[in-house]
What we know:
- It contains nine helices and no strands.
- By secondary structure, it is an all-alpha fold.
- It starts with 7 loop residues before the first helix and ends in a 13-residue tail after the last helix.
Amino acid sequence: VAMSDPRTAMDGFTTPANLLTFSRLLFLPVVIYGLVSGRPWVAVGAMFAAWLTDLLDGRIARLMGQGGSSFGKALDSTIDFALIYCLFIAFYASGRLETWQFAVLYLAMVMILTLQFFLQGTGREGEVATSRLGKPTGALQYFYLLFLVAMEVPAVGELPVIQTIDLVYFTVMALVIVANAVEIAMMLGRMGREPLPPQDGESEA
């Protein structure tokens, strides 16, 4: 019996695109450090670098003929999830977000996790949890995160018009998050009525 190549298990991870995706986790603590230490340009620089990796990883994967892999999609969505909600928690803990704002963002996080967990045991464990409003909701949150980081710079955050933009943008985002939560709740209701797939050793009737 031929022995398996120990490098094979890492082949799916150690592609340039996936390593670039993973690098966003390295920028996460740098952004948080910039926030809590009063060094806004550190936070802005690290967030800009993380954003660049998000723009480039998919393009590099497609150029190298590795686009569309289920592993790459799952890695990208997982890293983005960790980055977005860890930073929202950091903003709330440092007093940059009101409790009601954080509650809205927390609702988005809980609904995504609930949908993902609900897929377990349904024969769709490898899928990335999504809904029709999932991508717009994620994009709005990502850009709001960029906006919050930019507001850390006094010359930006102290502009009167920025406060108005903040309120309007968050209101729109909150409405989309609530609509997405309702959509996910309906999806969960439909999934709850579906029969479970046969387990190993069981045969379909």
